[in-house]
Design brief:
By secondary structure, this protein is α/β, with parallel strands linked by helices. The protein folds into two domains: 258 residues, 3-Layer(aba) Sandwich (Rossmann fold), CATH 3.40.50; 194 residues, Nucleotidyltransferase, domain 5. Helices cover 34% and strands 21% of the residues. The protein has 17 helices and 20 strands. The strands form four sheets. It has a nine-stranded mixed beta sheet, with helices on both faces. A six-stranded mixed beta sheet has the order 17-16-13-14-15-18. Strands 12-19-20 form a three-stranded antiparallel beta sheet. Strand 5 and strand 6 form a beta hairpin. The N terminus is likely disordered.
């Protein structure tokens, strides 16, 4: 059962000490509130009186599961010491977890003499834009509390207590041995490098502050095998034998560690309409990870093959102004050469041609051996087919992956059979791959079902999520070909960019 959290040997500055510190800091006594009416409140009550949020332009309103979790996380034993050194607060997206973490940091700060509170993230921008920002916004909205602090860009100092709150990036060398009263790690699921692991080690709490200090984590789930700090904590804590009895909430405790791992929408704004919208914009694994707080793989099927089948139509529309875009893709010698041709109709693209050429003796034959020194007109080879399409249609652009096709395309560009353009395989590809995902999902690519190799390559494709607007198409396994799918991605992006509606 829960114990209402008590103050940790509260420090109430005497008037003499306050005056001495005020004079030393060059401030006037009038700027301090020596008789804080909310000082003796519990953490939950103090937060609901003092921690202002912009959505309400006043104090935050905590909901039952949040109140119960705070009461447990901040509970103390019979000696007035914190029961938990580690608090893992994991909740689904848009559950105010960063705001609550900021409220706890601020509550601790104004009740601790000469305390040190750090907010850690992978980089300084992230550290300053989540929990730390929630605190600064609160101080702006609550002038009575705000005037008790001095500020720099990344640090707050509480004048009466001399305690500081600082936003810091992962920097194990610069942040070791801090003697912190509280270290708050925001979005620990993304801490996946050596520096983050070292930072976690270096911020181990000091034995001199045993029972007075905590490490607090706010996060949702990560990708399995890619969160070396968070995943072991989850595996250890979220076990049936660690369930805290007497509550219906997903609370766990093991030793001096407490965890809330919530996967259920419990807040008024977490509506079915909201989740329906999010399900259409996020990849399935990403949706489950952020909105259901489930561990998922960063690798998943690129699209459901049924989506591609649903894009099939009986009759393709005519080609407007005979305009098309061509894309070419060829990877290492043992992969295929892929050619894709698209036209456009309104917001849709239309697949007109798709073909793969397999390697012969480990190498792609780009032109007919019988072509000699003249142009290759044999459509059984890539060069001959490319020339044929360029003669038959108004080819607006030929886009290609430069890695294996530089010489082939450069020679044809110099000859002037069409305009050629390199498609960069870094960020532009990530955007194009996500666009292709969206277009197949929304039935915005029309085809007549004639190109079985294209269907096979799409079915062979997995993807890795970079963020909500980027993903990369990858092979499901090394023996599965996806060259036509990659070519379709490049062609689709350029067709929507360059072809008129």
């Amino acid at each position: 059962m829960y114990q209402t959290p008590q103050r940790l040997t509260p420090f109430r500055p005497t008037l003499f000490n306050l005056l001495a510190e005020t004079i030393a800091n060059g401030l006037t006594p009038e700027t301090l509130d020596y008789n804080d009416p909310y000082y003796d409140l519990s953490a939950v009550d103090w937060i609901q009186h003092e921690f202002y949020v912009p959505e309400l332009d006043g104090p935050i309103v905590l909901y039952p599961h949040q109140i119960a979790a705070l009461n447990e996380a901040l509970s103390v034993d019979e000696n007035g010491l914190l029961k938990y050194d580690l608090v893992l607060w994991s909740d689904i997206k848009k559950s105010a977890k960063s705001t609550i973490a900021g409220a706890v940091v601020l509550w601790r700060c104004v009740h601790t003499k000469k305390g040190k509170f750090r907010i850690v993230a992978n980089d300084l921008k992230q550290a300053a834009s989540r929990v730390f920002e929630a605190i600064t916004i609160c101080l702006d909205l609550n002038p009575r509390l705000g005037e008790q602090f001095t500020r720099t860009k990344y640090q707050l100092t509480h004048i009466p207590t001399g305690s500081t709150i600082e936003a810091v990036p992962v920097d194990p060398k610069g942040e070791a041995g801090g003697g912190d009263d509280m270290v708050e790690f925001t979005e620990l699921h993304s801490a996946d490098n050596d520096a983050a692991r070292k930072m976690w080690t270096e911020t181990t709490l000091s034995p001199l502050k045993f029972g007075k200090s905590q490490r607090w984590i706010d996060t949702y789930a990560g990708f399995s095998g890619e969160s070396p700090i968070l995943e072991p904590l989850y595996t250890e804590l979220v076990q049936e034998q660690n369930c805290i009895h007497g509550t219906s909430y997903p609370f766990y405790a093991s030793g001096r560690a407490f965890c809330m791992w919530n996967s259920t929408p419990r807040l008024p704004w977490q509506t079915e309409e909201y989740y329906s919208s999010e399900a259409r914009t996020l990849l399935p694994n990403e949706y489950r990870r952020v909105h259901k707080n489930e561990w998922t793989s960063s690798v998943q099927s690129f699209v459901q093959i049924e989506w591609w089948d649903a894009c099939q139509v009986d009759n393709l529309p005519p080609i407007g102004n005979n305009e098309v875009v061509i894309s070419l893709d060829a990877a290492v010698s043992n992969d295929c050469f892929a050619m894709v041709v698209l036209s456009r109709q309104g917001d849709n693209t239309v697949l007109r041609y798709a073909r793969k050429w397999s390697p012969v003796n480990g190498k792609i034959l780009y032109r007919s051996p019988d072509a000699g020194t003249g142009p290759d007109k044999d459509t059984e080879y890539p060069e001959g087919m490319l020339r044929h399409i360029c003669e038959r249609y108004n080819v607006v652009i030929v886009v290609y992956d430069e890695f294996q096709l530089h010489s082939f395309c450069s020679a044809l560009a110099i000859e002037g059979i069409a305009a050629f353009q390199v498609f960069k395989q870094d960020s532009p590809r990530l955007v194009a791959d996500k666009l292709l995902y969206d277009c197949i999902r929304d039935r915005r690519i029309l085809h007549n079902g004639d190109f079985g190799d294209m269907r096979e390559h799409i079915a062979n494709a997995n993807s890795t999520a970079e963020d909500k607007d980027k993903l990369r198409i990858i092979k499901r396994s090394q023996d599965k070909k996806i060259d036509l799918c990659v070519a379709l991605s490049m062609c689709n992006e350029r067709a929507l960019r360059y072809l008129p509606e």
